[in-house]
Structure formats: structure tokens, C-alpha cells
Amino acid sequence: MAGNSQHRADSESASPSAQKRANPNALELGPRKKPTTQDPLVHHGRHFGRAVHSFCNVQTLLTNGIITMGEDEDIESLPTVERREHTVFRELLRMVPGLEARLMASAEDEVIHIADLIQKGANGARADDTKGMKSAIIDWITPKGQSLNPHIPRNVKSGRGFNHERTGALLCPAGLDWNNTDTRSKLISGQIQVAGDQWPVFLYANYTYDPEDPWNGLLRSGLLVSAFKHIFTSPSSVDQEPKATRSGNARLHGMRCITKASLAYVATQARFSLTSAQVFSRTDLVTDSERFYTTILELLEDPDEKDEVDQLLVWWNRQVFPLFADLERMPSKDSALARIKQKREEYRERAISMSVGAQD
Questions:
Q1: Where is there biased composition of kind Polar residues (predicted)?
Q2: Cα distance between residue 1 and residue 239, in whole Å
Q3: Torsion sign over Cα 147, 150, 155, 159
Q4: Phi/psi class of residue 254: alpha, beta or left (left: φ > 0; alpha: ψ in -120 to 50)?
């Protein structure tokens, strides 16, 4: 009997109804799950890859940077590549609070761990942006009220690149004529291999390239503006007028103005989204993404191109960061502000005149 009683008890405890009663009430919220925490270095790494340098070996950057730490006064004597590398390293130190002190106090294995976390953030952000833009860019390249023919699926890339009339025209290298039948067939067949430094026409305003003035409209296309907003402000901001407040990734990382690297990064992401390539890889010689990114960044950092680049950055800030753009606005004529500035200048001139008279 005792055995039978025990058997019945075991059966009851194993029955579904008994198990259900043993679990928390399904109509109650239950205990709060512990929030997952992410190392802040991963967070900073995401912005570093987007806005400072995308194709960076962070471990090598930190190792070399530690060696040259404290030698800023000798940087100008370094070769161009090393000088650029040091500039990127200093920018990383600036954007990550306490990183310099942490590196100086860390053993080699800890430096490697720090580099891995930053690299993880940069790689993760790039993967997220590649995935998100693959779908969104179809909306941007489809004329308002029309449809693409043939249709391009939002999550399939095989029909893109030079395989499609629309994406092929946008990816056609500036200086080549997509409407030329021979040129088009060679691009489609691969007889014409497009290197990373052969920039596509979609980088230009209205997708128009002027060989006599190659700076005209460069990096000012509406497609690039949409791509930048999608990544740095928010996907929903693409079809809206610029707002005075920052949001999205720019806000999370305190980004108040355009950076040269962020512009090169967005152009690289947009270009890859238009291609038929399935996987974003820095070593892919077909898309040649790393070379594409590097050549744009080198142009933007070229001291000889400073005037054009400064104008370009002001233009971009007006598009994306209107509240923080340095527009150098003059006060309205006959306004109170204009009168205050005029009176201040008159006072300054009288003071200088009296000072000169006293010396005479």
C-alpha cells in the first residue's frame, strides 16, 4: 500500500497539471530579467568604425600608438602613413574617456583584450549597417510613384550591380557612359573590372560627372544624404526635413558635425548595397571596398584639397546637423544685433585712436 501511495504521489507530481501549478502564475509579470550589460569599449568601437576609421586593425593601432605616446611634437617628421595612423590613435584616445591611462597601466594581454572589444564594436556596427541598408536603399533608388523593372527584392542582392539597369547606371564609373552598349556589356560580363579608385557616378549630385570640373557635385548626391541619415540620425529621418535636435547613433555618441571618415564610410556602405556582392569583405577584390574607402578618405584629408573639402563639410553639416553647422551667418541688416556689433566696433576704433594719440 505504501508503495502504491508513493507511486500515485510520484504520478501526480509528474502530471502536467501538477507541473503547471508548480510554475509561476502565467497572468503575473514575474521577476524582472537582469539587464544584459555590454562593455563600454564595444559601444565606443561602434562609433570609432563609423566616424574615425572603418578598416582598422585596432590591436596594431594600439600597440603602435602606445610606443609613440607622448611624442606628439615629433609627429610631423613621421612618414605620411605613420602620421595618419597616429592621428587616428589620438582620436580614439579622445573619444574613449580614460583609455589612455588604462592603456599605460595595462599588460600586453589586457591591451589585446581592449583592442578586441573595440574591434568587436566596429565590426558589429558595420555588419548592422550593411544589413539595414541592403533593404532601405531600394526605396531610395526607386523613382517616386514608380517601380523598378525588373523588380529588385529588398533582401536579395543577386539582381543588383551591373545586372540591373538602375543599379548599373548608378555604379557606372564616372567617365564611362552607361548608355554605351559596348561599355555596358563589358561591365556586365566583367571585361571591364572596376577598381576601388574608379568612383561611381552616384557619388555626384544629380548623378552627373563633369570631367572638366571633377569636384563639381562630388559626394553631394541625394542618395548619400539618405544613406548618412539612415546610419547616423535614424532611418525615419531620411524622408523628413532636418531637425534641430540630434537623434540615433549621432546623438548616442555626441556627434555634432560631419567627419571625413563618416562620409567615406557612408559612401562605402551605399556602394556595397548597390552591388550584387553577398558578403561585405575588406579583401574582396571584386567590390574592392577597402580601396574605395581609403581613396575617398585620402582625398578628403589631402591638404591641397582643403578649400574644396571645407566647403563640402559645411554643405554636409547643413544637410544633417543644421543646429551645429558653422554657417558664419551675419546678423540681419538694421537689427538690434547688427547695431550692437556696429557700436562695439565704433568703440574699439575710438579706443585705438585715443591710445595712438596719447603715445604721440
A1: 1-22
A2: 77
A3: negative
A4: left
> How many CA atoms does the CB half-sphere of 64 hold within 13 Å?
17
Listed in sequence order, the residues at least 6 apart from 160 whose beta carbon sits closer than 8 Å to its beta carbon are 152, 167, 274, 275, 276
335 three-state secondary structure:
coil
- In the chain, the amino acid numbered 169 is A
Residue 336: predicted pLDDT: 83
Tell me the three cell numbers of residue 297.
578618405
Please write the tens of the pLDDT for every residue from 34-44: 555 678 999 99
By C-alpha distance, which of 70, 104, 65 is closest to 87?
A: 65
184, 188, 220, 183: which is closest to 201 by C-alpha? 220
Q: Please give the share of the chain, as a percent, with pLDDT higher than 70.
A: 79
Q: How many CB atoms lie within 10 A of CB 136?
A: 16
Amino acid in position 60: T
Residue 72 DSSP code: G
Per-residue pLDDT tens over the stretch 136-161: 999 999 988 899 999 999 999 989 99
* Cβ atoms 277, 287 nearer than 8 A: yes
Residue 278 or residue 215, greater confidence: 215
The angle that helices 108-141 and 40-51 make with each other, rounded to 10 degrees, is 50
Beta bridge partners of 218: 204
Rounded CA separation 247/240 (Å): 13
CA 271 – CA 293 distance, rounded (Å): 10
